[in-house]
């Protein structure tokens, strides 16, 4: 599956130039021209890497970088005309993975993107192999090796779609997942607007894991946005 790159810059010519080179290399692109729109794009798409200009409207690049680092671990490459050492150090300290000064060579940008995506892929594979393959939140333990959910050591049968959905939610407690993200990340399917499949699966999961499905403590509905799994400190002892 081709990777998706988010380009954030208020200069249309630069955005179009990067799009051209990225599409030739087989990448998909999503664009934003200000910080607020960029963060919305992150919430609505599965983004693999961000190319971020510092001097953008509404929310500047440094602020957006801090917001990204609160919720995402994807590589971020800063691309800016601010080329003093102070600017580079500030960006790297805030969590940027790389810093490229304008004017730039598009071929160099592509090479940097490929390098960071390769390192990110290799790192995630190493981490995955080192983990215990279990996700625990409160009394719930999801065994990824067995594809089985345990509640206080009692095995709970899950369908494949229920397991995939629960794994996604439990893997990042507190994070809100939109319906589109659930379709794409949990089920690897294209999102169908107004489809009730997610609501049905959520309802079935709640019947299996909640003491009171109508008043759930684990799977929360965030109206107008999607669903999230409760953090450990939100659960009643």
Pattern of helices and strands? EHEHEHEHEHEEEEHEHHEE
Radius of gyration: 20 Å
Summing up helix and strand content along with how strands pair, one would put the structural category as alpha/beta
| CATH class bucket of the largest domain | Alpha Beta
Low-confidence region ranges: none
Organism: Lysinibacillus pakistanensis
Main location: cytoplasm
Protein name: Response regulator
Subcellular location: Cytoplasm
Characteristics of this structure?
237 residues, five-stranded parallel beta sheet, alpha/beta, Arc Repressor Mutant, subunit A, four-stranded antiparallel beta sheet, Rossmann fold, 2 domains
Short description:
The protein is built from eight helices and twelve strands.
Description:
Its main location: cytoplasm. Keywords: DNA-binding, Phosphoprotein, Transcription, Transcription regulation, Two-component regulatory system. InterPro entries: CheY-like_superfamily (IPR011006), OmpR/PhoB-type_DNA-bd (IPR001867), Sig_transdc_resp-reg_C-effctor (IPR016032), Sig_transdc_resp-reg_receiver (IPR001789), WalR-like (IPR039420), WH-like_DNA-bd_sf (IPR036388). This protein has 237 residues and is an alpha/beta fold. It has helices at residues 12-24, 35-44, 61-71, 85-93, 106-130, 160-171, 179-186, 197-209, and strands at 4-8, 28-32, 49-52, 76-80, 98-101, 134-137, 140-143, 148-151, 154-156, 177-178, 219-222, 226-229. Helix 4 (85-93) links the parallel strand 4 and strand 5. Helix 2 (35-44) runs parallel beside helix 3 (61-71). The N and C termini lie far apart (42 Å). The mean pLDDT is 88.
